[in-house]
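Please complete every field before forwarding. Incomplete forms are returned to the sender.

SECTION A: IDENTIFIERS
Entry label: holo-285
Bound molecule: S-adenosylmethionine
Molecule representation: SMILES string

SECTION B: INPUTS
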Amino acid sequence: MTGRRELLTAATASLRDAGVASPEHDAAELLAHVLGTTRGQLVLLDEVPGDRAEAYVALVDRRARREPLQHLTGLAWFRHVELRVGPGVFVPRPETELLAGWAVEQALALGEAGAESPVLVDLCTGSGAVAKALADEVPGARVHAVELDESAHAWAVGNLEGTGVDLRQGDMATAFEDLRGTVDVVTCNPPYIPLDAWESVAPEARDHDPHLALFSGQDGLDAIRALERRAAVLLRPGGVVGFEHADVQGGSAPAVFAATGRWTDVRDHADLAGRPRFTTARLAR
Ligand SMILES: C[S@@+](CC[C@H](N)C(=O)[O-])C[C@H]1O[C@@H](n2cnc3c(N)ncnc32)[C@H](O)[C@@H]1O
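SECTION C: PREDICTED COMPLEX
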């Protein structure tokens, strides 16, 4: 048996030394994971059995080598839904919950205005996080999602099972020919990091998220340009699109939409820390 406090203190110090952004949180989350409990319940336990302590130290060591926490637990939370994640799929980020929340509000407002089954499309769905949240929070919505990468698509198949989401594998640039001009809300968290910003990316993302999920041309805007073209085809007149971008793209990302003349109400939105985070726009009528 080893003392819980002693284990947590040593793990937190090791993660802090390794440059992990939230060492206390991650140390507690990993201990809860090996004990099959929750962080909140840890205080009820003073001693950790030897085999669990060994398993814990091994996981903390992997986290200190900057494996993502969610790859070690196999789980990620996104709004009110749980997702299975691991190598081969992008780990959903808390900041993307803002984009999903905006889409939920748009879809619910359509329902209040009398629309029966809003049609929602999530491009670049990865693990299926945004699509699953939409299906969870917008009763009656018809949710469609597409992912290009075979491995990420396989994770999404598992995560979206039983949700009713129409998941397809393919390129967002040509996806959903059958939905042309009928979609109410398009969401997309595309790859948006400039190719030469490789060194500035945190090791957890750079070494463990798929590169197709991160990088998008010299200025990071290639996928956003493709999104602009496809959203204009898929949306009905007056339909809306929302997409995430890097905090340094608060001017350049909306400009991709504003420049074409196809959109009204092009607006950028900040995250809780005040950083530019996502853009929304309405297809002109
Ligand atoms: C930043 S990740 C976002 C994943 C998920 N939407 C989320 O927020 O967690 C971008 C995703 O887009 C996928 N992707 C990249 N280019 C694509 C394309 N042309 N068509 C469809 N999916 C694409 C990547 O494989 C990756 O899963």
